[in-house]
Amino acid sequence: MREFNIVGKHVPRNDARAKATGTAIYTDDIKLPGMLHGRILRSPLPHARILRIDTSKAAALPGVRCVITGEDTPKIKYGNWRLFPDTQDEYPLAIDKVRFIGDEVAAVAAVDLDTAEEALSLIEVEYEELPAVFDVESAIAQGAPVLHDYCPSNISVNRKIQYGDLEKAFAEADYVREDTFTVHAVSHAYLEPCSSVAQADLDGRITLWTSTQTPYITQCLLASTMNMRENDIRVIKPFVGGGFGGKMELRTWEFCAAFMAKKTGRPVKFTLSREEEFLAGRRRHPMKLTSKVGFKKDGTLTGKDLRIHLDGGAYNAMGPTATFLCGNFGAMLYRYPSYRFFGEHVYTNKPPASAMRGFGAPQSIFATETQMNIAAEELGIDPIELRLKNAQVSGDKIPDVATISTCGFKESLEKVAEMCNWKEKRAQYKTGGGKGIGIGCYSFISGGVFNWFNTQYPFSAAEVRAFDDGTVHLLTMAADIGQGCDTVVKQILAEELGLKMEDIRITSADTSMTPQADLGAWGSRLTLMNGNAVIDAARKIKEQIFGMVSVRFNLNVIHEMECKDGKVFPKGRPQRSMTFGEAVAMAQKANRGEPLVARGYYTPRDKGMVTPAFSFGAQVAEVEVDKETGIVQVKKFWTAHDCGTVINPKAVEGQLEGAIQMGLGYTLSEQFIMDGGKTLNTTFLDYKMPNAMDMPPSETAHIDTYEPEGPMGAKEAGEGLAIPTAPAIAAAVHHATGYRCKDLPITPEKILNATKSL
Amino acid sequence: MKRIIQLTINDKEYEVAVEPNQTLTDMLRYELGLTGTKKGCEVGDCGSCTVIMDGIPVNSCLVLAMQANGRKITTIEGLETEKGMHPIQKAFVEKGAIQCGFCTPGMILSSKSLLDKNPNPTEEEIRAGISGNLCRCTGYQKIVDAVKSVGK
Question: Does pLDDT of A377 surpass 80?
């Protein structure tokens, strides 16, 4: 384990002061001279042909400056899976057809919001309603209505994985079971509604300020849908009020703001209402998962056969990635000598599901973990013992998919058992006695390897400019959306160059100022990928200044150099040091005044199909269930997890605590109430996410590992922690009541029905 | 028709011409540029737009600007003085209570109202005091820690 000065220490976030004082500027806070306000007209029908749109009355309303429909646009489809253009199935505004309630049909820009809103009501749309499908079964049935002409089956993507001899695995097993699980859709529910402001310059070039997780993806897809060159689009990410996967695609309002700004010559702003967010916003995929597993009598796994249908909603969005990843996550945590996965992504007439914290893992690992708990009970083996027997370890290979370089899973299991007094409590609480304790585990990726966006640039990049006053400027396209990557990459740079946090200035997430490229904030990728790019740039700076020290002190060539405490010196002769600024000045002087600049890059290579590094962890929930009402109260959580080196302890704790809030909501209280494709609960009052009084206490332990592929040993800590909470609570509820949840969320009604108390 | 209202915001007198249907949130944000007051739901559920009006925390999205006529308003911009940040702001920064920051101004103002009335709240009282402010990032733990640290 390395000793660090800044990494692993408590460092407050860069932006905390701006956010605490109200000076942090988010997109909707931007007001430009002459700015117009945009609103979007959405489809009231789940599936319909557009026969006619008449915008003339809206356009004639005083104060309206621009009204557009799909017919006014270049009609170019987009989607994040550029590698497979067939999957790009969305237009910025509907062409010919609408496919869900909330699908975008037209847009208005006016001098104020009230006028824009009034203009929407003046747009006449004539629809021919078509039969619609709201669940996977109906969508794949014979003769089902077809959503997209290119895809008559409504199955837009499938993925297969297979290794080992599955028939033999089940034949040799002493115990085989098959279960079907269903999981529901939930909202990202980031507090900041989506917002975009666009401005066109006199040459027609666009600057877009937008609440996004992926400035680069937005830049590229905006360019293609506008029929413009990438470099003519500049995307700037102001402060972002959370994303969780819901802000990582090109969105209609980004296109409309840019398109209408270009058309009117005035800046245009779109900000969604919370109602629009809930009604039409992206959500986590509902899925149906059928899993068959085989065990030997002693608990050794022999194989697993996993089939999944993803209810994708009306468009692919990030569904292909979720399909791909479900298969990978199904093979994680335990050693399956044989494994088969078949996943299908299905179109339905509902708001598109997409990426959401965990990206397929909360769903597929809910099935894995619940089934593991059932098997443990039926085999008469303690659930933690059964897991320890089958747990993956460092060096394990998943054929054709990944190699696990570091794995602190067994240690996490042992630690969490000790923290919560597992054995005593399991024995003490009798099944059905109202109190229970249960476990759920997770593994997650530290960024993705698969280049579905088909970027022609490195996955992540950083530029470091060093100055003779001892400061540096870090430029990166990485998007801080609240998770804190600006602070984390600054810590990594400060550590590598031996500087203080206040010596570093950072410019991030501006596509025209920061080096190409960074794929964005998703897949828990930034600490590892951008961190590695930052280290690469910092090392190139060091190569240039180390020579100066050697020359200055006439050092023997055997000396190893170091940057520490603002100084540069030979490790063995620390007294022969100069300040970082002096070294930079000398390097500049030796190079005819040229500024000292270096660029660093990171693209995972030879890392299989999934990720360079996996995180692991285990979580225990203790619950009390009221037998009369069926209400579940979580008393406490214990978590032990392996995220490699912890760069910023408070940020990691914050990720865990926030993940528990999201996991608790996913398991017990959050769901969309849908009727005929319409989302009925469109307010925070009706969409119940936990508030401060709903949160149980929690205790955490970090398992020490050092990931060789990670920056200073770090792996991911953002998304994985959102995974174990549902299976842990479900297991605890089973212990407390005897009710085994295979169908999230867990509601009082389901518990009372199962326990025959209703 | 716009009407002129007079009010005190962060100890400064203002005269503003407002539309009858304009909310206090929109007036603060779009007329006066006090964009620290955030807009998360516009129906009084999320608490991001919390300001203190005559000593009471209110969802400014549920108050019409005209109803603020003659009132005394404190927004997040009013907490920092020449001596620096308010102790609650400092605690939020120091304790890691801020992630995306969108709920932060409302959280800080609800916490301030609580501490003004009850300088030494229990954990339960803190949780109740901020239960009208939703946060999706932090799980509330570090926010509670921050408020607790100021209470002592």
Answer: yes
For residue A687, CA distances in Å to A77, A658, A666 come to 32, 17, 11
Domains B3-78 and B87-151 share a fold: no
**Tens digit of pLDDT for each residue in A155-174?**
999 999 999 999 999 999 99
Domain boundaries, chain B: 3-78, 87-151
Asked whether residue A428 is domain-assigned, the answer is yes
CATH superfamily of the B3-78 domain = Beta-grasp domain (3.10.20.30)
Q: What is the ipTM metric for this complex?
A: 0.99
Question: Given phi > 0 = left and psi -120 to 50 = alpha, else beta, which region is A698?
Answer: beta
Percentage with pLDDT > 90 across chain B: 98
Q: Is residue A700 part of a domain?
A: yes
- Asked if residue A616 belongs to a domain, the reply is yes
**What is the spatial distance between Cα A445 and Cα A456, in angstroms, rounded to a whole number?**
22
At A262, list the tokens: 């270009």
Do B105 and A22 make contact, defined as CB atoms within 8 angstroms? yes
* Selected residues 632-651 of chain A with any CB under 8 Å from a CB in chain B: 650-651
CB-CB under 8 Å, B133 with A650: no
CB contacts under 8 A, B 68-127 vs A, are 75-77, 79-80, 85, 89-90, 92-96, 98-105, 108, 126-127
Q: Are residues A122 and A35 in the same domain?
A: yes
User: Which residues of A, range 185-214, sit inside 8 Å of B by Cβ?
Assistant: 188-193
Do A223 and A337 share a domain, yes or no?
A: no
State whether A354 and A440 are in the same domain: yes
Query: Inter-chain contact A684–B100, Cβ cutoff 8 Å?
Result: no
**pTM, two decimal places:** 0.98
Chain A closest-CA separation from residue B84 CA (Å):
10
Predicted pLDDT at B151: 75
Question: Tens digit of pLDDT for each residue in A587-623?
Answer: 999 999 999 999 999 999 999 889 999 999 999 999 9
Q: CA dist A45 to A67, A275, B9, Å?
A: 21, 17, 45
Is A621 found in the same domain as A504?
no
Whether chain A has a CB inside 8 Å of the CB on B29: the answer is yes
Using the Cβ of A727 and the Cβ atoms of chain B, whether some distance falls under 8 Å is answered with no
Q: Are strands A97-98 and A48-54 parallel, antiparallel or unpaired?
A: antiparallel
Q: Least CA distance to A17: which residue of chain B?
A: B93
Q: Which position has the token pair 């109602």?
A: A275
A686 touches chain B (CB under 8 A): no
Q: Give the model's pLDDT for residue A671.
A: 98
Residues A654, B141: Cα–Cα separation, whole Å: 8
Contact A466, A545 (CB under 8 A): yes
Say which of B104, B130, B135 has its CB closest to residue A19.
Answer: B104
Q: Looking at residue A496, which CATH number applies to its domain?
A: 3.30.365.10
Q: Are residues A673 and A744 in the same domain?
A: yes
Q: Is the pLDDT of residue A1 over 80?
A: no
**What architecture is domain B87-151?**
Orthogonal Bundle (1.10)
Q: Which domain holds residue A43?
A: 31-130+191-242+247-280
Put simply, the answer to whether B96 touches A24 (Cβ < 8 Å) is no
At A401 the pLDDT is 82
